[in-house]
Give the backbone structure.
Amino acid sequence: MLIDTVLFYIFAALVLGGGILTITRRNAVHSAMWLIVSLLGVAGLYLQQQAEFLFAVQIVLYVGGIMVLFLFVIMLVNLDQAARERQFNRHWFVALVAVAAVGAEIGYFIYRGRTGFHIAELGAPIAAPHALGNTEMLADTLFSEYLLPFEIASLLLLVAVVGAVVMAKKRIQ
Amino acid sequence: MGSFFVITVIKAAIVFAVLMTTLAYLQWVERKVIAHIQVRPGPYRVGPHGLLQPLADVIKLITKEDLVPSYVNKPLYLLAPFLAITMALLSISVIPFGPTIDVAGHRTWMQLTDLNIGVLFVLAVSSMGVYGIALGGWASNNKYALLGGLRSSAQMISYELPLSLAIAAPLLLSNTLSLRHLVGTQAGAIWHWNVFRGPFPQIFSFIIFLIAAFAETNRVPFDLPEAENELVAGFHTEYSSMKFASFFMAEYANMITVSCMATLLFLGGWSAPWPAEYGSNWVPTAIFALAGVLALYHGLHPARRRDRLTLPVFGIVFFGIAAIFQLAILQSWLLPLFWFCAKTGAILFAFMWVRGTLPRFRYDQLMGFTWKFLFPVAVLNLLVTAFLVALVG
């Protein structure tokens, strides 16, 4: 189990370190790269939870699809000018109040739901491996129990795609 | 446990050695094939029939000066070729080359590792391969390289959609994501292969897969990222020595990977086209014996003086291989390997054939083709397949 713990901390460090570096780098391409590192860390955490389908989808969609689009836009737009300018304004007070508010909110909900959290007991029996693979289980749940939300979500995405095309067309004319 | 590690290390070493040799010689084969399409002999000087040309190329590439231009973004410039070659070689680790075999009392797969999400893993890894090209183009700080990188990222994202949809359709027939089980469901005979199997033969998704694979590997007619008459050399303009070679190797490794995937998904992997009772075991022997006879005949009637020596040697080697295929001990793993290599090799030959035949697309044609034709056809094919599978099953 030691190797699991070590791997968990490596992935967690990738997620957090990547996230911090994403928002502190001045060069937009470097930020995108660190965001990819962070997303890969999340994929690793999925794999540790034996959710191999989510792991693959996380990489195919986020790393291989969405982030390539991000990078594409960053490369198309000339950001050299923006990188040289001062990017961070000094509204310390507003930022501090906002952070404190969000922190208090999260703290309150954690306090309210404190009975819902369990720290796994050391030496507790590990859940038996599922007879079905992660992919099959996900498909079963998605297409039986959560069929309606799934269809609604797909309709929503379709509307967004059609809307994007319509707006892009309008701008050309 | 100990033997598991030893076997894995040995298998990894074998796969690595074979893959690297294939990468080097695939380039020789490609130059020869294209040369013969264009009615010229191709590489001929280094070794008999230019057979040592890949070795000479490797030595040249290693000993060339490794230049890093002063104006590049250094970390990403150095990362890009590394990323490209790593992602290209990684997907080979889940490709099965043959069935389970027994070696010296140990039972093992002819595959580095079998994942239950093998197909998705290959998709995931290959989708990350675009970063090598996109970053290489951007980090070079050169307008031609940047245009090449941009073109490649747009192209690869666009062609990944029909590629994934074309992969999904045969998966519906086989009902598994493991590459090993995928072959198991197609075993027996040629009409069990996914490309010909009912309820809906996957011939359309096979063609869509091949077209999208040409685009994903940046091959002619979709090689716009490195269109030399408009972009110098595209994304690898600023790379030299082994860094250039990494991009080159990555392209060929990706070609091998997609050919293996096409073989596994559509052509039944390592299973023979017809059962052994009807003599499919004699096919490799017959082919190699025929090659031996041909080589001997041309050795006796040589077109060039050197051929009098080299061609009979090749002929004897071919006869030896033909005899090896009849050894009963080796047949259990040699025959599946032969069928796998034959199918993959046929697809690789198609890659070269197309390169020798077709001109390059224009950029708007390239994008219009995938979004307005390939993608709708792939969706339709998937829908029809899903409907028929649900109806029959």
